[in-house]
Amino acid sequence: MSSIDRSKLDAYMPDLIALRHDIHAHPETAFEEVRTSALVAEKLKEWGIEVHEGIGRTGVVGVLKGSRPGQRRIGLRADIDALHIFERNAFDYASTVEGKMHACGHDGHTTMLLGAARYLAQDPDFAGTVHFIFQPAEESAGGAPAMMKDGLFDRFPCDAVYGLHTEPGRPVGEIASRIGPALAGSMSFHVTFKGTAGHGGAAPHLADDCTIPVAHFILGLQSIVGRKVAAIDAAVISIGHISGGSKGSPNVMPAEMLVSGTARYFRDDVQQIILRGLRDQAELFAKASNCSVDIQINDGTPPLVNHPEAFESALAAAEKTFGKDKVERERPLSTGGEDFAYFANTVPGTYMWMGGGVGPDGLVHDVHTDRFDFNDASIPYGVSYWVNLVHTELRSDETPTQDGEVA
User: For the Peptidase M20 dimerisation domain, which residue ranges apply (predicted)?
Assistant: First the structure.
């Protein structure tokens, strides 16, 4: 049962939907969210919330203190950036920026947190402080570290931090999460094999052919998970890019080839196994072919691990908002990555996935696709969840003001 007064929320739901559509129509990618950040700051100020801008370059933090005394402080986080995708939707609020679109629901995440901020500013009946964290550059895995580098948790201390994401395909009115590991850690690798060029037809014996170690390396990578990682530990290694030579000169053996890929894991020791195996195999196969190799590792995000106490608070708020039978407590592990993990590694945190249902055409369009659109029907659920979480964490009056679940 929700403790939120739906009549108050219903009064400005049209405003929230219009706001979401406006953000969707004007997508901005990593660290370029100037318009979006300004819009967020403008709304927060309009509702009398203390605003801090320029945190992590384009991040915004709103600070709201409850009307009752309390020392506990929590952070609620929404991501604000878009993706480099050409939108194929034809509705009137489709992207106006060619090659960019809100294809992961961040327009909806931002709107729901703004809706909660507005509701709580009108009725701050809680004990403690809420930090509304609007984070840039989630998709590039750089926004959370950038905000922390700018002193996010030093300037705005939090005893717990929470995130919320839409999940297309899960019915609207349902929510899910799991205690402990929830999302994988990620990293990318770029391995360059260097030999000597040669005539592949007339004189291959005069060259140090770097295509041979590349072939062995790509196949050998698959043995790392199969033979070095314990069967009970999940891990993935995939190749996403191979380049070298020229299509127009297939008889010329390239002097250099690049292999790039990604790895996912749930435990730090598994990451080290992958790193050692990757380096050992690259160096071994390069040496066997009289080639050299350059290995570049780019860290992505650490594993996202939901903290037990924060999870229980999130679960209580979810059950109050959605009803116990609509809350999945053991969502399957996902090898997706999320830089909210940086926050949750610093402050006890928990991340939830809220049902996004289907698109207007009755089909499920997954995130990061050119037909995805955040489902406006889920906005009141998200706002209610955030408000109920504040009431749960900051010991607000939990007496329902209106019976019934969020509709």
Answer: 184-264
Q: Is the model more confident about 306 or about 395?
A: 306
Q: Which position has the token pair 């049962």?
A: 1
Task: Check if the beta carbon of residue 401 is closer than 8 Å to that of residue 5.
Answer: yes
Summarize pLDDT for 186-195 with one digit per residue, the tens: 999 999 999 9
The residues pairing with 260 across neighbouring beta strands, listed in sequence order, are 190, 241
Pairing of strands 68-79, 160-168: parallel
Q: Are 191 and 294 in contact (CB under 8 A)?
A: yes
Contact between 162 and 74 under an 8 Å Cβ cutoff? The reply is yes
Contact 343, 75 (CB under 8 A): yes
Task: Report phi then psi at 290, rounded to 5.
Answer: 60, 35
Closest CA relative to residue 388, chosen from 161, 49, 126, 163? 126
Closest CA relative to residue 207, chosen from 175, 172, 253: 253
Structure tokens at 272: 């080290």
Q: pLDDT by residue (tens digit) across 335-369?
A: 999 999 999 999 999 999 999 999 888 899 999 99
At 118, give phi and psi (nearest 5°): -65, -45
DSSP 22: H
> Looking up tokens 């314990």, which residue turns up?
230
CB 4 within 8 A of CB 380: no
Residue given tokens 């809680």 in the structure block: 126
